[in-house]
Amino acid sequence: MLRNSSIDNIVSNYYNSNDKDNNCLGLGLNEEVQASMESNTKFSDVKGVDEAKAELEEIVHYLRDPKRFTRLGGKLPKGVLLVGPPGTGKTMLAKAIAGGSWGAFFLSGSEFEEMFVGVGAQRVRDLFAAGKKRSPCIIFIDEIDAIGGSRNPKDQQYMKMTLNQLLVELDGFKQNEGIIVIAATNFPESLDKALVRPGRFDRHIVVPNPDVEGQRQILESHMSKVLKADDIDMMIIGRGTPGFSGADLANLVNIAALKAAMDGAKAVSMADLEYAKDKIMMGMHKATIVPRGMSLGMVAQLPDKDETSVSRKQMLARLDVCMGGHVAEEIIFGENEVTSGASSNLQQATTLARAMVTKYGMSKQVGLVAHNYDDNGKSMSTETRLLIEEEVKEFLERSYNNAKTILTTHSKEHHALASALLEHETLSGSQIKVLLAQVNSQQPQKQQQEVVVPQSTSQSNPVPASTPSAAASAAAAAAAVAIVAAKTQGIAPVGS
After folding, report:
1. Under a CB-based contact definition with an 8 Å cutoff, are residues 46 and 92 in contact?
2. How far, in Å, CA of 78 to CA of 245, rounded?
3. From 215's CA, which of 60, 131, 274, 418 has a CA 20 to 30 Å away?
4. What CATH code is assigned to 312-488?
5. 32-206 belongs to which CATH class?
6. Per-residue pLDDT for the chain (496 aa), expressed as one digit of tens each?
7. Residue 359: which residues within 8 A CB-CB, separation 6 or more?
8. Where do runs of H (alpha helix) occur along 65-134?
9. 141 forms bridges with which residues in the sheet?
């Protein structure tokens, strides 16, 4: 058994051996914390988050001229909490604020923690002490949920000490001292309530994913750093990447540039950007039977504009599209030859139908009420759960019948698309429109079981027995036909 003096020596040796490394971080135990970076980022460099940028520009004015805002008795904000998905530009916004002539301390929440109790709390004290000496200054803590999560009696003592010290320090300086703490997190709901209350973090600013116009601006910013061809249309790429963050778009441009370089091209073209988009999200405004990730083939569409809400009619149309693949295999190959290729579509359809019933109040039988279906039945009775399942099944059966009606009515278009996909593997949205226009312009012919071939292609054989590529072409063609049928009725199915 080790004596107490031996244990003390071990701990002392650990601190002495790691003291140099700790000091290099700027968060050493015995050395003053230094400003960690001089930022050259300007607000004009930040794209796609105009609302958040406008709010944060006020912080710059506070730091430049505090007396202007305190002369009437007002107080400067102590803290600003940036909330948003990963990659939306929270750190870049903090760098833009730090682009002035003041000190800036940039740290990650995980840098405060150590295996020894009390080290994290001491680092917090050192950080704020250095900030007061460099006033006016910014203290930016990225991923603050690493130390600011809700306290639990089961938490380790050192975790509580670090958070408690942070709470004390946020109360320990006056609001007029010119120190502003900026923190960023992807999980605001996990933060301790005492940390995010007014008086500590007075401002909560949401930094969302950019809209279509914001995506265009971000793409133009990144494309200005590469050689680009004349055929590039930023709006098409922006409309085809819903939900992409700024980091996602930067990655897309980089993949496209690498692809163009590998191909020996002189500039990045629209085809390279389309390739990069397909590689990242398998999303495209086209139909394809080329395997994409875990999918044998797929169909997707560009949204006409930004959508913040979706109508019941659009959701029902999406259910019809999801059922198209399964129905197409039944019609062309027979019930006994239906494959598992449409399983993903069935899962999407079931999830959407259940959301319509339990979240959006779109079932007359269940009523205008929201149910938590994922809590193992704790919030609803067995009868209610059974009623929900019956309503979901009713939605899916109705969409199955609609899909069968659509594909039977548009049999010529369906077979033409399937044949063209077997030959070309991928069709863009414009190519599909041209093909359907050719089919519809032909003279009415006697309905046949063989494939109808477009005028621009040579005579091909009838659709073969069920194979992965044949099934994929039938399913992709069915989804494309269902989308076109919905749009002719003025409905844009949600999703892709």
Report:
1. yes
2. 28
3. 60
4. 1.20.58.760
5. alpha beta
6. 444 444 444 434 444 444 444 433 344 444 555 555 556 778 888 888 888 888 888 777 877 777 887 788 777 778 899 999 998 988 888 888 876 545 566 666 667 665 555 677 888 888 888 878 877 778 888 888 888 888 777 666 666 788 888 888 888 666 556 678 889 999 888 898 989 888 888 889 999 888 888 889 999 999 999 999 998 988 888 888 878 889 999 999 999 999 999 999 999 999 999 888 877 765 455 566 555 544 445 555 545 455 557 889 988 988 988 898 889 888 888 888 888 877 888 888 999 999 999 999 999 999 998 888 777 767 788 899 899 999 999 999 999 999 999 888 888 888 888 888 778 777 777 787 788 888 888 745 544 444 444 443 333 344 444 454 555 556 666 666 666 565 555 555 554 4
7. 370, 371
8. 66-70, 90-97, 119-133
9. 107, 183
Q: Measured between alpha carbons, how far is 419 from 227 in angstroms, rounded to an integer?
A: 38
Query: Is it true that the peptide bond before 136 is cis, omega within 30 degrees of 0?
Result: yes
Contacts of 189 (CB under 8 A, 6+ apart): none
**The CATH fold of domain 212-281:** Helicase, Ruva Protein; domain 3 (1.10.8)
Which CB contacts under 8 angstroms, 24+ apart, belong to 487-492?
Answer: 491/313, 491/314, 491/317, 492/301, 492/303, 492/304, 492/314, 492/317
Give, for 286, the enclosing helix (H) or strand (E).
Answer: strand 286-288
* Residue 147 CB neighbours (<10 A): 25
Using a 10 angstrom Cβ sphere, with 0-12 exposed, 13-18 middle and 19 or more buried, the burial of residue 132 is: middle
Amino acid at 70: T
Q: For residues 182 and 350, what is the distance between their CA atoms, to the nearest angstrom?
A: 42
pTM comes to: 0.58
First to last CA, the chain: 66
Task: Determine whether 394 is exposed, middle or buried from the number of CB atoms within 10 Å of its CB (0-12, 13-18, 19+).
Answer: middle
Q: Is the distance from CB of 53 to CB of 45 less than 8 angstroms?
A: no
User: Which runs of consecutive H residues, i.e. helices, occur in 305-443?
Assistant: 312-333, 343-358, 382-409, 411-424, 429-441
Domain positions in the chain: 32-206, 212-281, 312-488
Whole-number Å distance between alpha carbons of 298 and 291: 8
